[in-house]
Write a structure and sequence with these properties.
- The chain is an all-alpha fold.
- It has helices at about 1-10, 15-35, 40-65.
- The protein has one domain (about 1-65).
- It is about 80% helix and about 0% strand.
């Protein structure tokens, strides 16, 4: 999730929305897996990751509209 957020916001790297979305979707899948085995920390991280996915998707949609 942190790597996806870094790409999304340009934290220590250039903004890369595709890389952000890829990393965030990967994190989402892994958090789902962890939640299913009872990891309460992942249960809290999942909605945060989904919010970041929504931001990345929205930013990509806007970029597409500009082309």
């Amino acid at each position: 999730m942190r790597l996806g957020r870094a790409f999304l916001n340009g934290e220590g790297t250039q903004v890369d929305l595709i890389a952000a979305l890829f990393e965030l979707r990967t994190a989402e899948a892994l958090f789902y897996k962890q939640v299913l085995i009872g990891d309460d920390n992942s249960k809290g991280q999942l909605p945060k990751t989904q919010e970041l996915i929504a931001l990345a998707t929205s930013a990509l949609d806007e970029e597409i509209k500009l082309r």
